[in-house]
Specification:
Blueprint (H helix, E strand, L loop, with lengths): L2 H6 L1 E8 L5 H11 L22 H13 L2 E6 L2 E6 L8 H8 L4 E7 L6 H13 L3 E6 L8 H12 L2 E4 L1 E4 L7 E4 L4 E4 L18 H7 L1 H17 L5 H5 L3 E6 L8 H11 L6 E2 L4 E2 L7 E9 L8 E9 L2 E2 L3 E4 L4 E4 L4 E4 L2 E4 L2 E2 L4 E6 L8 E3 L17 E7 L5 H13 L4 E5 L5 E5 L3 H14 L3 E5 L4 E7 L2 H10 L4 E3 L5 E5 L2 H10 L3 E4 L5
Parallel strand pairs: 1-3, 1-4, 4-5, 5-10, 6-10
Antiparallel strand pairs: 2-3, 7-8, 8-9, 11-12, 13-14, 13-22, 14-21, 15-20, 16-17, 16-22, 18-19, 23-25, 23-26, 24-25, 24-28, 27-29, 27-30, 28-29
Helix pairs in contact: 7-8, 11-12
Bound molecules: guanosine-5',3'-tetraphosphate (G4P).
The site of guanosine-5',3'-tetraphosphate has 19 residues, from helix 2.
């Protein structure tokens, strides 16, 4: 197949949702369609279970599972589909943000009875920022759900995106009769079933055939509601979807395999193929002949007996080939990969080549950090879009075993490269500060330092509001600021200046007093 055709047939996306809305169930049904798995229940979720107890073994076990389900590729109808999994637990939100930098579109799952929930709101913010095209799947229609118009209003208001329903539910819960597929102009009748897939029947909405199938009352309501839909929502336009301005909406029940195939068919037709990636130097087009890619995720502990890691590389342009020399841009050295892997459902296998949109697993012994770029030839490309955000929680980290100082330093370094948390070095007292999004990470770090590096750490609480990256064109003012605020200054792991604000008030005062300094809540500006 031609290189351009390989690119055109790829669809790389993530499914995101608030925990429990049905992301895992939907993923599994999509894999069933792709023939990538054969029985329901084969995909274990990549979520740290809801209880969020600090059960380390459970976390470790689930981390193991999540490697296999990090990327799920399958072939369907001539398309190569790559689903990137994201952790559901909010303490791992940064992981999800980074994964979203590697996709070309997103499917958001919403529970029809719960509507828009916190995690959905946060994730959608990232999609909006990046203008990622979004399709919404309203799930669990087999349960009593909110009024569909109310749900659509809620999505528009809470997620700040216009919507366009492409299917329409006929009732919900006990009186759920099915959906009318506006995109295909077909009627799908609902029969609770976890295994089989119903065929759509084409009916003329005006004919009595509709009444015979779903009953007079339901038919009348459907006609009325569809008329309202056509009156209220603008006609579906693929360009407004691809520019991230309008989200098409589908209704269904993932558990009952209802509405999933229609979602997949429509998704394959409208979702964008691999898109250009932004680099510091320029935008990189997928169809450029030279390979380039970036690391958006690093996974350790593939094998508990060896400290091996796998770096997930998104192919941005060109063809990736096994055993060909590529440049590691940050280290300025050439690397060859003799056993790159691809992920097909729950299996990973060594591959010889990969195309833009694909994710390649690169075995790593410590060369990679999150955000690293790799490319072919002499041109250096630094991909952007993987910023660190200000952590929410901060703690000093100290060595609890003087004999193991080296191990601790190495362990902390490597865990930070993996993006588990952020490290800052206090400029006043030289102490190291770990910043995280959630409390769970502190426990993960402590556990992993001990089990993987044989190092013991101790935490000490520190009450901080935010870490702000500071910069200014006025060198004198910046020097003055750093001098005055010396007890609040730190360096991030790349040596950049960070101001540790104890409170919002303190940050506002600093902004007022130092007008020529810019305070950023993310490391990329
Ligand atoms: P998540 O990955 O978004 O966290 O959600 P997940 O798919 O695990 O689904 C959460 C719960 O919702 C599961 O039940 C799942 O069976 C159920 N579910 C998913 N889709 C539907 C649907 O269309 N209709 C109904 N009625 N339920 C649905 P659970 O009891 O938490 O887990 P399990 O014991 O079934 O695995």
């Amino acid at each position: 197949m031609e290189f351009e055709q390989e690119i055109a047939r790829r669809r790389t996306f993530a499914i995101i949702s608030h925990p429990d809305a049905g992301k895992t169930t939907l993923t599994e049904k999509l894999l069933l369609f792709g023939g990538a798995i054969h029985v329901a229940g084969a995909v274990k979720s990549n979520k740290i279970k809801k209880t969020a107890t600090s059960d380390f073994m459970e976390i470790e076990k689930q981390r193991g599972i999540s490697v296999a389900t990090s990327v799920m590729g399958f072939e369907y109808d001539g398309y190569k589909v790559n689903i990137l999994d994201t952790p559901g637990h909010q303490d791992f939100a940064e992981d999800t943000f980074r994964t979203l930098t590697a996709v070309d579109s997103v499917i958001i799952v919403i529970d029809g009875a719960k509507g828009v929930e916190t995690q959905t709101r946060k994730l959608m913010q990232v999609c909006r920022m990046r203008k990622t095209p979004v399709i919404v799947f309203i799930n669990k229609m087999d349960r009593p759900s909110n009024d569909p118009f109310d749900l659509l209003d809620e999505i528009e208001n809470e997620l700040q995106i216009s919507v366009r329903p492409l299917s329409w539910p006929i009732g919900s819960g006990d009186i759920f009769r099915g959906v009318y597929n506006i995109f295909e102009k077909n009627l799908y009748l609902y029969e609770p079933s976890k295994q089989t897939v119903q065929e759509g029947v084409s009916v003329d909405l005006g004919s009595t055939g509709l009444d015979e199938r779903i009953g007079d009352r339901a038919a009348a309501t459907l006609r009325e509601e569809l008329e309202t839909v056509e009156g209220v929502y603008p006609e579906f336009d693929i360009e407004t979807y691809r520019s991230g301005d309008v989200a098409p909406v589908f209704f269904g029940s993932a558990l009952n395999n209802f509405g999933v195939r229609e979602l997949l068919h429509c998704f394959l037709q409208i979702a964008p193929q691999p898109q250009p990636s932004h680099a510091l130097e320029r935008d990189v087009n997928p169809d450029e002949k030279k390979f380039s890619g970036f690391i958006f995720k690093i996974h350790a502990n593939m094998d508990p007996n060896h400290r091996n890691r796998i770096a997930f590389c998104k192919v941005c342009s060109g063809k990736f080939e096994r055993n060909k020399g590529y440049k590691h841009v940050r280290l300025g050295k050439e690397l060859k990969f003799s056993s790159p892997t691809a992920f097909m459902a729950d299996k990973k296998s060594i591959i010889d080549e990969a195309y833009p949109g694909d994710i390649v697993g690169l075995p790593d012994t410590g060369n990679f950090k999150i955000g690293d770029s790799i490319c072919e030839g002499n041109e250096l490309i630094h991909f952007r879009g993987l910023p660190s955000f200000s952590p929410e929680l901060f703690r000093y980290i100290d060595n609890a075993d003087p004999m193991k100082a080296k191990q601790l330093a190495k362990g902390i370094d490597q865990l930070m490269d993996e993006g588990v948390a952020q490290l800052f070095t206090h400029q006043f007292n030289g102490r190291k500060i770990i910043g995280t999004v959630g409390a769970l990470q502190f426990e993960v770090i402590e556990y992993r330092l001990l089990h993987e590096y044989g190092a013991k750490c101790r935490y000490e609480g520190i009450s901080l509001y935010k870490a702000c990256w500071v910069e200014s064109d006025d060198e004198a003012e910046l020097a003055e600021f750093k001098n005055r605020k010396v007890q609040y200054m730190a360096k991030d792991k790349d040596g950049r200046d960070v101001f540790l604000a104890e409170s919002n008030f303190m940050l506002q005062m600093a902004q007022q007093d130092f007008k020529n300094i810019r305070f950023h809540l993310s490391s990329e500006f």
